[in-house]
């Protein structure tokens, strides 16, 4: 009998799970709170075994065609002078071979899913109740339905996670907020990721995209780990207050916020759940093990974890056995990927001119030729995978053989 699966969330992990489940003959519905597929977002990279998975999905060339064109990272001062430069082809660099906008990647995965996948927008789960061999799901909109499996893939701030694991989770607040939005590209802009550290506790990123605009990010220190709901105008006001008089392109970014209609703004938490499943419900992606952007591993974990979860469900008739295998195979790598360097992220922020000077000095030293040569001596190679990807047989193909 074909199993019905409901997936909450249509960013990266949700569509990836849907792709592999549908390929294996499952009846898949994907639910997304937003009214349509969210195509915004920042530059993200795909590393480790996630590169092998997008290859298996036939997406590697399409992803390469949508590369943002980013040349590397530059630390700049208030006058725009480069303090440290890390081109993409250096040993120490933050720009990866596979760089793509989050929205572009989400669209590619959604388009790759079999036509059988049912996409529902503008709704979310409000209650889950196990009823024998089914899960009764209540929605904010529409009638309740039953499914064999429910997958929470709805991000760091997942409301579905609370319904599944309850108090068996923690959200480790990193002491800072992040924002992401798109602004116009000016003639003076370039194809580098430009990083500016202000002495008033904020960091401004300006990064190129492949659409003729600039992806901006404003990060800042804050003691507020759980803010009230913010309207778009609330977000603009908060960001403008932080940017005012901060130097470099801060005034330009504040001005351009007037024309922005989509902003992510909020505190950054690492999600750590004692268990990733309960009954017939399971977590994946940031809903299960959000590492935050400071690790650079969010997209990679989402793709690998979703691949393993979906294929373990296909390999086992017993969902409990599938969930157990999923955790056994992936938890150690997910937890390892969440580890931050000592002092991160606090070391990146400056609340004095002296610390700002030290940050830029450190960037210059790290970018120097002697340091690059030293790193090259000990580097194991960025193309090597730390995670050994399990191989699975397609269940649908096996059953029809």
From TrEMBL:
It holds the Pfam family FAD_binding_3. It comes from the Bacteria. Residues 4-336 form the FAD-binding domain. PANTHER family: MONOOXYGENASE, OXIDOREDUCTASE-RELATED. GO terms for molecular function: FAD binding; monooxygenase activity. InterPro entries: FAD-bd, FAD/NAD-bd_sf, FAD_aromatic-hydroxylase. Keywords: Monooxygenase, Oxidoreductase. This is FAD-binding monooxygenase. The keyword Oxidoreductase applies. The keyword Signal does not apply. Gene3D superfamilies: D-Amino Acid Oxidase, subunit A, domain 2 (3.30.9.10), FAD/NAD(P)-binding domain (3.50.50.60). The lineage of its organism: Bacteria, Pseudomonadati, Pseudomonadota, Alphaproteobacteria, Sphingomonadales.
